[in-house]
Amino acid sequence: MSIERVFVAGAGLMGHGIAQVHAAAGKHVTLYEPELERATAGRERVAGNLARAVEKGRLKAEERKSALARIEPTDDLTLVAAADLVVEAVFEDLEVKRGLWRDLDAAAPVRSIFASNTSSISIDRLAEAVGPGRRSQFVGMHFFSPVPVMPLVELIRGSATDDATEEAIRALAGELGKQVIVSRDRPGFLVNRILIPFLGEAMRAFEEGTGTAEDIDAGARVGLNHPMGPLELADFIGLDVCLGIMKVLHDGLEREPFAPPKVLEDLVAAGHLGQKTGRGFYTYPRER
Ligand code: CAA
User: Fold this and answer.
1) Residue 169 shares a structural domain with residue 218
2) Ligand 1 centre and the CA of 111: distance in Å?
3) How far is Cα 237 from Cα 201, in angstroms, rounded to an integer?
4) pLDDT digits (tens, 9 = 90+) for 178-221
5) Which of 150, 165, 184 finishes a domain?
């Protein structure tokens, strides 16, 4: 099945990037938020990203214009009636996501594939929100931040996901220029299962005073050739997001490396969520 019309639910950090890569690949995108201003703000973020790409000579001004024209911000959920694919990228909360999927299932055509960008919530538990007939078309489509830059899609197969759905997502990811890896529906899937204990261990080393945040991060950047150190990456992802994923991993796998460090719990409790709040392991804008 060819995917031409995509309904993206959620226009935040992940949702606007997901809208951008689909529009850039020639898809018509409906960008949904319950409040129209937020959907419009998501499209504005895309406009800013694409303006930078034009400045850098990576994109022609006409390509930017036509990509933006393919993104329609809306607060009208019933527009999902035209969607070949729905990508959900809303807050990582099981009940929030399930409520939205229930509404989308009622309004979407039978052919629509349903893909969640969840970073750790079980695909089977999300798929319980839709009718039994849709579950074979329910899949995880996990993008990485910043979405326009990171060339990976982690495809998560739930127990009911069928081969045709996997094939359609693989073909689409190819059109987006993304490589696909496939994970079973296990806590943290593949990438966060690898990443999160690494971030957690860096936080524990910081908490114990083994080294400064700067030295922990330089260790990973300079010694391991990572583009960002673990503490700055955690700030970039969002400390609340990291904590949420750690809890899912710890509850599901019950192993110590997945336990949330106290420093992380304390920062989140204090409202210091990383770059987005101006403070996490570092304060922003950062002095170098
Ligand atoms: N949106 C769009 N493009 C962006 C961007 C953004 N937010 N941030 C950077 N870019 C682009 C820049 O425009 C630039 O493009 P060109 O090379 O074409 O000029 C390119 O990325 C590099 O940017 P910079 O030169 O400004 O900065 P950099 O070299 O330090 O790279 C980075 C920035 C790409 C973010 C890099 O530091 C990096 O790869 N960091 C690691 C990111 C990562 O690990 N992401 C995964 C997080 S885990 C996740 O998302 C999943 C989850 O479930 C938690």
Assistant:
1) no
2) 34
3) 16
4) 999 999 999 999 999 999 999 999 999 999 999 999 999 999 99
5) 184
